[in-house]
Write a structure and sequence with these properties.
Blueprint (H helix, E strand, L loop, with lengths): L4 H16 L8 H6 L6 H10 L5 H5 L12 H15 L13 H23 L2 H4 L15 H29 L9 H13 L21 H29 L10 H26 L10 H23 L6 H18 L6 H18 L1
Helix pairs in contact: 1-5, 3-5, 3-14, 6-12, 6-13, 8-13, 8-14, 9-14, 10-11, 11-12, 12-13
The protein binds iron/sulfur cluster (SF4) (2 copies).
């Protein structure tokens, strides 16, 4: 009946929790669970993506190990969530990437950086690649703008299509297809996701190293998430500068794209370091070691994108610019390619689950 052993275990736990209901004030998962008497695969995937892994329900649970009921909702939901990413992957043939995710992402990153470095050296005049380039269009002396736009546009477009197809499969499986989605539900979900409302253990904070809610995972997640959005905004503004006003990069220190990109890059670097540290220190009883590679690879990739962008910004008027540009573009390209097959999808499915939850609460 259940597609995997972890879904069967999640069903067992949800039936215990539905009889107990002690944790109903902790997060969105428990109220959503209480609206159901039985759980399909899609229901369990929906609940798993509502869980934010704060750990509170493990430390509050009178049936947690060593009790014979062996209730561990955070770890079980983490396993179900990881399986759900692979289950909705598009195209299906690429779903196995999730199994060896850390290795695959590391390989893609290494190959992309190598390809950009070798490509630059093969097609650029060494005199240009390893010398100082200044002023408007300096980057394009090494890689023509149209080539850059075509390459990154294609990778980005592919990722968007794969992400949309995955989200469609998720939305259908959690039983939301055909339901009317009101603007209020989307707005509620944006607020809940933007504040990480359900990462606070019902108001006392997130547990990470022990049952004492003392970690700052939420703040580091905010730094990473908003840093990413600022970097996206920087790229969008730069695209408008290029195509609408005809102003070519690199831009001055005080220009809008550089200011947005600098703050965003710092957010990515600081947030990623904090999240990696928190992951390293997470208590064994609420950790899912099988997710370690995927989580670490994703956060490490964000760090590398942010750090390589900042280093390029500071050294763009030196002879190292060509090499640094190749390294930064390699990491960004690998990030785009791996977006649909790594931890990035958690944002999409969690947001979908929050919209669904807001819809259920309204009705
Ligand atoms: S996690 Fe434990 S305490 Fe909380 S609802 Fe489930 S069984 Fe009850
Ligand atoms: S968000 Fe926290 S309280 Fe809710 S199910 Fe997940 S670990 Fe438990």
């Amino acid at each position: 009946m259940f597609a995997t052993d972890n879904l069967a275990e999640a069903d067992r736990l949800m039936r215990i929790c539905n009889a107990c209901r002690y944790c109903e004030g902790l997060c969105a998962l428990f109220p959503a669970m209480e609206k159901r008497r039985t759980f399909s695969n899609g229901d369990l995937n929906y609940l798993a993506n509502l869980c934010h892994q704060c750990g509170a329900c493990y430390y509050d649970c009178q049936y947690a190990p060593p009790h014979e009921f062996d209730v561990n909702v955070p770890v079980t939901m983490s396993k179900v969530r990881a399986e759900s990413y692979a289950a909705y992957a598009w195209p299906r043939a690429l779903a196995p990437i999730f199994e060896k995710n850390g290795l695959m992402i590391a390989l893609t990153a290494a190959l992309s950086v190598a390809a950009f470095l070798i490509g630059f050296m093969a097609w650029s005049d060494p005199g240009v690649m390893f010398s100082v380039q200044r002023g408007e269009g300096a980057f394009y002396a090494i890689m023509p703008h149209n080539t850059m736009a075509a390459l990154f546009g294609a990778a980005f477009l592919y990722s968007i299509v794969a992400l949309v197809m995955g989200f469609r499969a998720f939305w259908s499986d959690i039983g939301a297809n055909g339901s009317r989605v009101e603007g209020q539900s989307i707005w509620q979900a944006i607020k809940d996701a933007g504040q990480l409302r359900y990462l606070d253990g019902g108001g006392i904070g997130c547990m990470n190293e022990s049952e004492k809610p003392a970690d700052r995972r939420k703040h580091f997640h905010h730094a990473t998430f908003y840093g990413f959005l600022l970097c996206l905004a920087a790229t969008s503004v730069a695209t408008i500068y290029h195509y609408v006003f005809g102003w070519e990069a690199p831009y001055s220190w005080y220009s809008l794209p550089v200011l947005l990109g600098t703050v965003g890059g710092i957010g990515l670097v600081v947030g990623a370091i904090g999240l990696l540290k928190a992951k390293w220190k997470r208590a064994g009883e609420i950790s899912n070691p099988s997710r370690f590679g995927m989580d670490t690879a994703f956060v490490a990739m964000l760090f590398l994108v942010g750090a390589s962008g900042l280093i390029l910004l500071f050294l763009r008027t030196t002879p190292a610019m060509g090499t640094l540009l190749a390294v930064h573009l390699g990491f960004v390209f690998a990030f785009f390619l791996t977006m649909p097959y790594g931890k990035f999808v958690h944002g999409l499915y969690r947001f979908g689950a929050l919209v669904r939850h807001a819809m259920e609460e309204r009705t």
